[in-house]
Design a protein that fits this description.
228 residues, Rossmann fold, 50% helix, binds 2'-deoxycytidine-5'-monophosphate
Length: 228
Amino acid sequence: MPLPQRIAIDGPAASGKSTLAQRLAETLGYLYFDTGVLYRAVTWAALQRGDAVEDADALTDLAANLPIDVRPPSKADGRKYDVWVGKHDVTWAIRSPEVDRWVSIVAAHPGVRQALIEKQREIGRRGRVVMVGRDIGTVVMPDADLKIYLDASAEERARRRYEERRARGEHVSYERILAAVQARDRLDAQRTVAPLRAADDAVVIQTDDLDAAQVFGRVLALIEDADC
Ligand code: DC
């Protein structure tokens, strides 16, 4: 039986999407594409230019014209890929607390989403891809061969982020991380265009009581059983 060529993985922040997708892509020899980097790169560029993140016209224009490139990793500093905006390597800059803070507002502009969607679809059409985001199964690749929606409670997701950041030596407060996770959930789920939700034909996996290896095992079994 042929394996699913296009796999969509959606879910809220810190639900384990990236870990799962990276492992699947590695195992299957597929491209791993984390679509959040596009929204993050636009947010980074807007902050650099001093554009107001609420300015829909300026942000739409920026998204439509920004030379964003995602390439194989050029450095062994923990990165899984490079993200470039023109001549700037923004791989780590797009993960800053400042970008974290504003990216949901940028991603809520319909014009920004429209500008970035074609880039995502073009990569999807090539096949052999594991694409991660919020609206991959519902909007970007509604005809994906396999759709997974990973979920977990806000408390569990905040705990994971907290542990990750503590392990990197950062001094962080669990309460503040939880508040940030909840704020992003609200913005991502309540926006009018492409809100975060599981596609009707997605397999929903609750990961509160599962570790990364268990989630991977379940999805691999689904892939092996998939009828496409
Ligand atoms: O997955 P992430 O944390 O890098 O996503 C950053 C933001 O971009 C988040 O607010 C949700 C948004 N996003 C989106 O709206 N659609 C996607 N396909 C991917 C991310």
